[in-house]
Every structure is written in structure tokens, then in C-alpha cells.
Amino acid sequence: MVNIQIKRITLHQVRVPLKKPFITHLQHVMERESILIEVLDADGTIGVGECVAFSSPWYTEETVGTAWDALEKWIIPSILNKTFQHPDEFDECVNSIKRHNMAKSCVNHALWDVYAKKMNVPLWKVIGGKSASIEAGIVVAVSTEKAMEADIESAISAGYKRVKLKISESSNPQLLKKIIAKYPNTLFFADANGDFTEKTLHVLKSFDDSGFTLIEQPFSEQQNKISACAQKAMQTPFALDESISSFQDVEEMMESQSGKIVVMKQGRVGGLSQALRIHRRCLEGDIPVWVGGMIEFGVSKAFNLAFASLEGVKFPGDFSSSSHFWEQDLTIPTIDVQQGVISLPSIPGVGVSWNHDIIEQFVVRKKQFNE
Length: 371
Ligand code: OSB
Ligand code: MG
Hints:
Bound molecules: 2-succinylbenzoate, magnesium ion
CATH class of the largest domain: Alpha Beta
Number of strands: 16
Strand content: 15-25%
Mean pLDDT: 96
Low-confidence stretches: none
Number of domains: 2
Shape: globular
CATH superfamily of the largest domain: Enolase-like C-terminal domain
Largest sheet: 9 strands, mixed
């Protein structure tokens, strides 16, 4: 049996510039602020996590500021010096704190890392992962037609198996159809980040024969009813991202048929324990799952990769190399795509740790919690 007694928790807030701006209709992301967490257990084992909330609430309501606040005021005090036998017990412990899923997720992750290290087994094996090699996919953000084509070309020659294109009401479906037809061996996803409405349903419908394997989050999370109507009228399956923040949301998606596929982002659902619960439900209901990205550093990516090794994760996720977004990632080792795949670690735990020498250059605040 494993005992995890939490002796100390350290938070570092960092701000790191992206190599190039990440542009969607919602936001231009130029730099990434994140909260990095380390949990020290009584035996000296260190577990890592990364809070994926953004600086402002453009993607979800959580931000770096609200997450720091929730961690400092409620989440960390409710677990410090407690003893856990399993990371799932953390969820029970913070049940009385409503939502703040991204803040909770990074702590849940650190506990899973400690747990797997104490079991002396790689995390992906602890959770029942089946595959040691994960297919990589990349996201091409909004830009000019020429720049987009160049980005797609270079992703495909680097071996990526799947390309996700950000779309909006003003994208040109004919143009995208032409591009997709040029690469018959590559899967193409579209991600609308909720840009469509009932009024522009006809525009969405014109993407139905563009050749996209799926369309991610066509409508905002407030419009699941419209999504269900549109899904019935279209062939291309919808994969829901922003709409899924809990197990219950997956049940509702299945019942209403507002989408047919789940995009898993562990931060959005509150951590790996919740993600595994959702995963079991999706297997039961024969709902395909794939793993979405959040412009993350190597720790969050490593947890995503562990999840992607599970049965039923049917499509390549948002898994680009560390060097795609960053001059230098903040982890040891970094994440590397080779011939379109990423190999999972063979060492115990999640397989990466924070690189403090690099982190020092980007820290904007730091706090340590003990007693
Ligand atoms: O909607 O999937 C999204 C990035 C930030 C927030 C939301 C999304 C994204 C991406 C990029 O699409 C995924 C990546 O990190 O590769
Ligand atoms: Mg998305």
C-alpha cells in the first residue's frame, strides 16, 4: 500500500513568450503565464503538476489569478499534512470547493506523479495504458492563406499524422477543402472554438464536405441544444471541448447527441482522476476520445501523453514537440516528436520534472506552503 503524506507544496508562477503568436478568433496568445506546482511527500518524493489556466478568461472562466487564489486560500490548506492512499482521495477532499477545475487538476496530477513514483512504475502503466508510442498532431492557427499552407506543409514533412485547423464563421470552406484534398494521407480536424451560432448554421453546414474528420466545438458551451440540432443535420462528427467540464457533461452529450466525440483536457475536467472516470464512461458508451492541448509546457503534455496511451483514445491528439511553442521548454526531458510519434517514458512517475535553472529566468511569483 502507498501512503502519500503531503509535507510541502511549492508554486511558481511563470511568464514565457511564445516563439510566435498563437492566433484564434478568440485571442492572440503572445506569452504563456502558468502556475507550476511541486508537492513534497514525507518520504522525500516530489510530484509535479502544471495549472493550464490562461492569463485572462478567453477560453474558460478560470485564470492564473483565480487559480492561484483558489490554490492558496482553499485547495492547499485542505490537503497540507493530510495522508492519501490514492490520488482519487484528493477529489473527495476538495469536493466542497466548487469548480476551479484547472486549479484542482494540477494538484491531482502532482499526487498521481508521487503515487506512480512510489509504486516504482511509469504513470501511463499505472493507469492501464496500452501503447508506449503516441501519434502526434499539430495545430495550425489563423494566418494568411499562404502562411497556413506553409505551416501545414512543414508539419506534414515533420511527420505529424494529423493537422488541426482553427476555423471561424469567416473561414473559407472551399479553400480548406482544396488544401485538405492535397494531403490524402493526413487527418484534418477543424476547431471553431464555439464561433458559430444559429444564425450562421448555414456556414457551418458548408464545411460538411470539406474533408474534415471532425469539427471541434462548433457552438459555444451555452448552445448545446443548437449543437444537437446541427449534429443531426450534418455528417461530420462534432468533438466537444469547451462543453465538457465534468462527467455529467459527457452524459448529457451522449443523451442529447450534441456531439459524438470527447476532447479530453484534464485541466478542464479537474484532473486525471476525473479524466479516467470519463474515459471509462466513454469506453462503455463507445464514444471516441482524443486529447486536446492548451499551449502547455512539458509537465502538462506528459500527463496528456499518459492519458493518450489508454484504450479508446482513437485519434492523434494536440501533441507537438516542445520546440513548436517554446525556445526552451521548462522540463527535463523535453517532449520530442520523432517520425510523427512520441515515446512514453520508462522511468517511474509521469516521466518529466521541472527544470529549475530555466524556470528561474521566467518566475514572476513564488510561494511555499508548509504547516
Ligand atoms: O481550443 O483546443 C483549443 C489552445 C489553447 C486553448 C484552447 C485550444 C488550444 C489549441 C492549441 O487549439 C492546442 C495545442 O496546445 O497544441
Ligand atoms: Mg478546442
